[in-house]
Amino acid sequence: MATDGKPVSYTDDLRLAHLLADNADSITMSRFKSGDLRIDTKPDMTPVSDADVATEQAIRATLAKARPRDAVHGEEGEDTGWGPRRWVIDPIDGTKNYVRGVPVWATLIGLMVNDEVVASVVSAPALGRRWWASKGDGAYAGKTLLKGQPIHVSAVQEVGDASFSYSSIDGWMTSGRGQNFVNLLRSCWRTRAYGDFWSYMLVAEGAVDLAAEPDLALHDKAALDVIVREAGGRFTDLDGHDGPSGPGAIATNGVLHEDVVAALAPDERD
Prior knowledge:
Blueprint: H1 11-31, E1 39-41, E2 47-49, H2 50-66, E3 71-74, E4 85-93, H3 95-100, E5 106-113, E6 116-124, E7 129-134, E8 139-142, E9 148-150, E10 163-166, H4 170-173, H5 178-187, E11 190-192, H6 196-205, E12 210-213, H7 218-230, E13 234-236, E14 249-252, H8 257-263
Helix pairs in contact: 1-2, 6-7
Organism: Luteococcus peritonei
InterPro entries: Inositol_monoP_metal-BS, Inositol_monophosphatase-like
Protein name: Inositol monophosphatase family protein
């Protein structure tokens, strides 16, 4: 809340995030399926392309001019600045898809204030789709800020009637929750591995009822959090703590959340 009792508006920050996404889209699309795309391997054995690096550098350069007092956390660069306001960037979420020519990838841009995500844009230009939200103003999807439509989570009441999207199975098998993950898959009406950002945006749109992954970094989650929440859902870590911190992520329509958290609890050991 503002000091005068009125809610804080993040409209200007959201508009800036859209401008950042516009610039990011121009860079990522110009390099997508490019024959001279350079791909390196990071120490964690995940790929990084020259498009990842160029996109994050461009976003950071604009923020340095437009929000010089704000901190920045990104996947490809070192943290800069300090204070209550922090931009969290994933220049290309779904780099493995990107480098193989699969169009399911996105730039994630989120703003956190006092560790709460208050505004974000998720832009997937190869899908012709963008999602955004700011605290207290709802969640939207469309091609541009001026052509957005409100989105809302589903009203599914039972896990047995739910559609569950996830990423890979491998991470679950080493998470200490593998058997319970398999059990949850079996208990749901439908399961699909849409993966990465898309699983969570489908939850926000009401096309999928729950999504979960066992191992994610802050830059993978921050931008997703506020969109799911403003669409009426809930976003937590695997243990049910709200927000993009903690281990992994679970997003649901809210109604299903406690049941999913319980279902994905660490496997019991003899």
